Queue: 2 jobs
Job 1
Amino acid sequence: MHPQGTSATRRTRLRNALAVALLLLGVAPPVLSQSHDIAPYLSDIRATYDLPALAAAVVQDGTVIAAAAVGTRVYGGTTPVTLQDRFHLGSNAKSMTATLAGMMVEEGQLRWTSTVGEVLGDDIPGMSDTLSAATLEQLLSHSSGIPTDDEPMLEIYFNDNAFDENPKDLRLRGIDAWKDHELKVPEGSPFQYSNFGYMIVGAMIEKVSGQPWETLIFDRIFDPLGLKTAGLGPQATFGRIDAAIGHRIGTDGAVVAMLWGPAADMPPILGPAGNVHMSVLDYASWAGWNAGQGRRGPALVTPETLHVIQSVHVQTPVRLNPPPGTPGTGAYGFGWGVVDFDWADTPLLTHNGSNAMNLARLVIDPAQDLAVVVLTNFPGRTADTAVGEVMQHLFQTYSRH
C-alpha cells in the first residue's frame, strides 16, 4: 500500500517535514510527585497558542517532580489527552540511535572511527571514496560532508517502492542509490544537519549487530528503561484515536488530523533519524537517565561512553530562522545539541524534533541532574514558540541556580 497523492506532492510534504529535523537490570520509571501542579500553566499556554494538546514534565534527580498533559487528541475535538498518551519525538530519537552506536563501540563491534566503507563496503561496493571514508563519529555529529536532505535523498526516502521491503533492506538500498555522491565539507563549520547520515548509522549498527535497528531500540533502550508506551511510527493504533494525533497545516491554513498509515509519519527507512513515539512520562524517564549521566541504572552504556555522546564534537553555524525541529546555533555532540541559552548559566544539552505533524523539545542540565521535556501534537513556528516558552519557564522555575 502506498501513500495517497502524487509523487511531487509527497516529495514536497517530505521536503517540508525533513527540513524540520526531522531532537542491566530493569528500572522502574521515575516516581511522579503530585506536589507541583503545572496543568493550569500548560492550559493557558495551549489556549494562547491554539494548540490541540500540550504535555510537559520536569525530572530532578531521577524523579518526575512535575508533569501534566492538557488539551485534546484531535484539534477541535473533545477527547482529552492523558499522561499516558503517546506523542511523537521526531529527531529527538537521534540521541537514542547514538546510544545504540555507543553500545556497539563498547562491545567492540564498532569504533568511533569506523568508516562506512569498512562496515558496509561488502554490501555496497563502489561507494565514492569520500562516502567510504566517512566515520561513525562524523555521521553522528553531522560533520561528514553529507548534506541536509536534498532532492536525490527525498527520492530515496519517499518513492513508489518506499514500503515494499523491510526497513533494514531499504536502508541498504537507499545508501546504494546514493553511493556515487562525493561528500563536501563546507568552509568554516563542517556541520550539516543530516537525516541521511543517521540512516547510514542505523545500517552500520544493523550490520555489526545482525539485528534490525527497530528490534535493537526496543531490546536495548525501551525495555531496560521500562518505557511501556514507547513505539515506532504514527502514535495512534490503526483504527483508533488512542493517542495525541499529529496534524498538518494546509496551504490554505486548514488543519488536518493525520490519523494512521504511511501519511501519519516519515517513511520507515528513516527510523534511526527519528520515528519514535512515547508518553511524556516515558520521555521524562529517558531524559532523566541522560541527566544522571549514566550513573543511575540501567547501565545502557558506561558513564564514560555517555560522556563522549553528550560532549561537543562540532560547532554549529548560526542559522537565521531555522525550521522548527532543527538546531539554530551552538554546538553538537552525538544526537545532542549543546547550546548556551541566554536564560541558563551554563550550556545545556538539548534537541528539537518534528515530523512536520508534531513537535518535541527537551533541555538537560547534567550538573543539576535536571531535565525538562515538552511535547505537542501540532507543527510549525507557532507551536515551536509555545513549546520553547514552556521549556524555558519550567527550567527557570525548577533550576537550583
Job 2
Amino acid sequence: MTDPFIRTFEDMGREGPLAGLRLAVKDLFDLAGVPTGAGNPRWLETHEVPTEDAAAVARLRAAGARVVGKTITDELAWSLNGTNAHYGTPENPAAPGRVPGGSSSGSASAVALGLADIGLGTDTGGSIRVPASYCGLYGLRPTHGRVSLEGAVPLAPSFDTAGVLTRDAATLRLAMGVLLEGTAAAGPITRLLAPQDIWDEIPEATRAAVMPKVESLGLEVDHSPLFGEVDDPSPLETARVAYATLQAWEAWQAHGGWIEANAPEFGPGVTARFANAAKIGSADIAVAQKVRSGIVALVRDRLPEGTALAIPAAPGPAFKIGGAPDREAIVRLTCIAGLAGASGLAVPAGTVDGLPVGLQLVAAPGGDERLLELA
C-alpha cells in the first residue's frame, strides 16, 4: 500500500461545526510551516515554505477541522489518473489494484481508507468528481469563484475550483457550507436532464449501473438532447477540445516560465501535456473561447433554476494501475461544468463488476447548495 500522506502532524482541535473531523489537505494548498510540493520534487526545491495557511485550509480549521496530513497529488494537478511518477499511486480501497483517480488522488485515498473525514482537493477538469466516482465517495466541484484559492498552486485559473471529498453526504454538506462564499441559487432542484445524446455515448454497463440512481431520486427526468439540433456531428467532443485547449494555454501561462527556468522532471503524460501547451497560439484560443461562450449560453438555457444535468461522473470504474485510460472520454463528461463555471456533484451510484461508479449532477453557477440538498 502507498501511504496517501506526504507527511503527517498534529493539529490542535477547535470548537465549531467541523469539530472532531479529520482533514487531509491536497499538496497544492499552503499550510503554515509545511512545504508545498505540488506533486513534483523540483517544485518543492524551488519554493519557500509558506508562513500562512491557504484560505480554504484556514476556514476549515477555524470551523474546528483537525488537519492530519498533506496528500499526494498528480504533478501540478494536471492529470485525472491519480498516479505520480515521483511519489507513487495512493491506494483505492474500493477498487484494489486500480487507480484512485486524480489529481486529488491522495485526498480521495485518505478519505476512502478512513484516515480522514474530509479530503480537501481541487477540480479543474474533474479532479474531485472522478476520484469520487472511482473510490465510491461524495465530492463537490463548486461554482467557479465561490471558494477562495488564495494560497493554492494554480493549474488553469479560469477553471480551477476547490472542494472536498467525503464518505457521506452530510459531511460533504457541512464542510462545503464552511467553504462556500457568495450568493446561492433559490429554490430546490425538481427536474433532472439526462440527455440521450450524452447517455448514448456511455458504455452499457455504466448506463445500467448509474441510470437507476437517476430514477431513484424521484424527480422529473427529461431525456431530450443537451445540444439539440446542431450542425456539429460531435458537439461534446468539440467542447472537450475547447476545454483542453484553454486549460493547456492557461497552464502554460501559469507555469511555463518556471518550467523553462528550472527544467523539472515530469512523468510522461504531464511532460507531453506541457510540451503541447507551449505550442498553443492565439488562433487556437479564439476558436476555443467561442465554443466556451456557446457552452455558457447552453447551460444557462438548458439548466434553468430547479434543473440539474444528470450524467455519469466517469465512463466506467477505475482502470488498473499501469493501464491506459481513455482521457478524452473522461473529459467529455467533466468539461461542461468547467467550461460553464458551473457546480458539479459526484455521488456513489452503483457498481460495474463490483467496482464503484458515480453519478454527476451539474447545476448552473450558484447551484451548489441545491446540489448539496439533493445529495
